[in-house]
Amino acid sequence: MIAEAPHVRLLLAVAETLLAITPQEWLDNVGLPLETPLAIRHARNRKAVRSEKPCISIIFVSAEAVPADNDLTNWETQKRLLLDLQADVDLDPEQGTVDPTGLGMLSRILGYAMSRLQLEDTDPLSPIAALSDRVGGGAYDPEDRATSEDGRLVLEANVVYRVLSTDENVLLAQGVNG
After folding, report:
1. Can you give 123-175 as a three-state secondary structure string?
2. What are the start-end ranges of the E strands in the chain?
3. pLDDT value at position 178?
4. Domain locations in the chain?
5. For the chain: N or C, fewer Cβ within 10 A?
6. The domain 6-177: what is its CATH number?
7. For the whole model, what pTM was predicted?
8. In whole angstroms, what separates CA 41 from the centre of its chain?
9. Using alpha carbons only, what angle is made at residue 10 by residues 162 and 83, rounded to the nearest 5 degrees?
10. H or E segment at 12?
């Protein structure tokens, strides 16, 4: 049986990295109250339900080859895992005066999550750093189909990693091959 696909291992490492953020860190850096812990979930074929909010859903978009960098050898292929980090919170429709759209809280949640993924990217003991070369952020994308009570914002993210050029199921990473 072949090993778990690299993109699956990386998705799990992203979740593990975000799950390591404590409720106190969410409070200190985002302003998210301790009594509403942030859930980290994998999106499947459904949206977050009310009992899971506030949450970040990790959504697989694609895994694709990227142009080779100068530091790659003939037996390495560099790939990029594209994913969306989707933040969902419940909003009081148009009643708040500080953040009536909810975009402030949603942006802080996603911004802090991305900063932690990028910070962890430099820590050799981090789940995501052990399997990837780097983590980068992309554009914010509002979710216009959400109801007025559902705050939702998406941040594009990409994780660059290397695989064996003759077998793309073999992840070449410090946390795998020593």
Report:
1. CCCCCCCCCCCEEEEEEEEECCCCCCCEEEEEEEEEEEEEEECCEEEEEECHH
2. 39-42, 55-65, 76-90, 134-142, 150-164, 167-172
3. 46
4. 6-177
5. N
6. 3.30.70.1700
7. 0.86
8. 10
9. 100
10. helix 6-19
